[in-house]
Amino acid sequence: MLISIVYDSGYGHTARVAEAVAAGIHEVQGAEARLIAVADGAMDWEALERSDAIIFGSPTYNGLISAKLKQFFENSTKAAWSELKWRNKIAAGFTNSGAQHGDKLNSLVSMALFAAQHGMIWVGLDLMPGNSSSTGSAYDLNRLGSWLGVMTQSNTDQAADIAPIKSDLATAAYLGRRVTETARRLQAA
């Protein structure tokens, strides 16, 4: 089973989240994660077509996905959308910003809408929001309380080897496992 992670990362923080998603995928026996940084250049569209799932990732800049991920989305029109080559493929997403909120929901909505237009099946988080009670903490899974996809936060004065925090990365790994297990169940059907 091949799960591709297509992402952009301006400062390395989103790449670190992508790596955590890949680590979660690798926890499922027989699953392979393929990290694809859109900034690296030419896209292997055939490999994406062979993927059982595609997980999208982007930093949130000014409430939007990055220009490089948006360019990938636009380039997919000819390569995949016009023939619905990704129809019924599992999709999911993650995003990172410097602010706790940072309008990250808009980035996830953009990814989910893109997936819907390709006929993909979106998988969100099935985790209750962490850090939402007097007994909660920033170390809870899903500490930013998202259901549509993974939201992570990196302090703007910290490098990618420090931020985002472990609970955000654990939430990303959880999404990787969830997408892989969902894709496996749908393969069996």
**Mind summarizing the main beta sheet?**
6 strands, parallel
Relative strand content:
15-25%
Separation of the first and last Cα atoms: 15 Å
Low-confidence stretches: none
Structural class estimated from helices and strands: alpha/beta
Shape: globular
N-to-C SSE string, H for helix and E for strand: EHEHEHEHEEH
Please count the helical segments: 5
Radius of gyration from the alpha-carbon trace, in angstroms: 15 Å
Number of distinct beta strands: 6
Helix content: 25-40%
Mean pLDDT: 96
Description:
Strands 1, 2, 3, 4, 5 and 6 form a 6-stranded parallel beta sheet that branches. It contains 5 helices and 6 strands. It has 189 residues and is an alpha/beta fold. Helix 1 crosses helix 5. The two termini are 15 Å apart.
